[in-house]
Every structure is written in structure tokens, then in C-alpha cells.
Design goal:
The protein has about 140 residues and is of the alpha+beta class. It has a single domain, classed as Gcn5-related N-acetyltransferase (GNAT) (Aminopeptidase, 3-Layer(aba) Sandwich), CATH 3.40.630.30. Helices cover about 30% and strands about 40% of the residues. Strands 1-2-3-4-6-5 form a six-stranded mixed sheet, with helices on both faces. The structure holds coenzyme A. Coenzyme A binds next to strand 3, helix 3 and helix 4.
Amino acid sequence: MLEHACFDAPYYRPHRFTHSEFLSYLQNPNAVFLAAMQQQLLVGYIAGYRGVRSRSRSARIESIAVAPAARRRGIGGLLMRRFLDVAKRRGSSRVTLEVAAANERARQFFAVRGFKPVRRLAAYYGGRYDGLRLGRAL
Ligand SMILES: CC(C)(COP(=O)(O)OP(=O)(O)OC[C@H]1O[C@@H](n2cnc3c(N)ncnc32)[C@H](O)[C@@H]1OP(=O)(O)O)[C@@H](O)C(=O)NCCC(=O)NCCS
């Protein structure tokens, strides 16, 4: 399953989306959920919220994942570009996300796409592993 394959690191295991969390994106009008399909199989997704609930109009990315066998072909970058486009069109002027400090690959992926550290979040993952909040303007 995509969620297990993508979030196998100890800092992410307790934070994997459950079935009902995935379903909640379908019911929330402020949710943005984009899926990448190949040959009728889900190979990646990005999930978050546009920023209407916050005064800062800041959108949030809750998760992005691409199946290991489908990586480094531009799918993650495409999902990110589409999410940023949708959030901007729906009125967000900024986007934030959290990433595990130890997740070097994802940190590099986000840095290349203009995300800068906002602050360090001590013991944010599993009560043990630090996170980083990243942000960028839209
Ligand atoms: C982070 C993640 C989503 C990136 O997905 P991806 O599909 O591999 O992303 P892309 O292919 O667009 O980009 C990855 C790298 O591949 C390279 N790449 C893209 N297309 C390529 C191609 N056709 N040939 C060779 N390399 C390519 C890019 O240069 C890119 O490097 P960069 O980030 O330094 O620019 C993926 O690694 C993942 O699912 N990780 C596990 C989950 C996770 O940690 N999520 C983030 C925390 S929420």
C-alpha cells in the first residue's frame, strides 16, 4: 500500500493517513486532494487545505507521496505545481508544510521548489523526532 511504502521511517509510521482520514478529504470543501494515476493504479498524491480558515490565507500541505518505483520521474514535482496553482486560484497567498528534520530527500525536494524553513518543531513526530515547518509565498 502506498502509505506504508512511502512512510516506513520510524518518525512517520505513527502519522500515516488512515482510511477515514483519506475519506475526510472528500467531505471537506476546503480540502485539496490530487492523485497521480498510472495504468489505473494510484502512484502518488498530495493532500492539504486552502487557507480560508486562517486570517493569513495560508494553505497547508498535509502530505505528499509517490510510490518508490515511480519516483524521480517528475510526478512529485507535478503534484506540487498543481497544488500550488489550485491553492493560489482559491485565494491562498502562502503555503506551509511540515517535514521530518531527518528526511533529507524530501527537504531537498521542497528546497528546490522554493520552501524555506520557518521554525524547528521539537519532538514533533512520534514525540521523539524533530520536524521543520517550511513555507513559501504563492
Ligand atoms: C518527496 C517525493 C514526494 C518526491 O517525489 P518524486 O516523484 O520522486 O519527485 P520528482 O520526480 O518530481 O523529483 C524528485 C527528483 O527527481 C529528479 N527528476 C525528476 N524527473 C526526473 C527524470 N525524468 N529523470 C531523472 N530525474 C528526475 C528531480 O531532479 C528531482 O530532484 P530535485 O528534488 O532535487 O529537483 C518522494 O520522494 C516521496 O514520496 N517520498 C516519501 C514520502 C515523503 O517523504 N513525503 C514528504 C513528507 S510529507
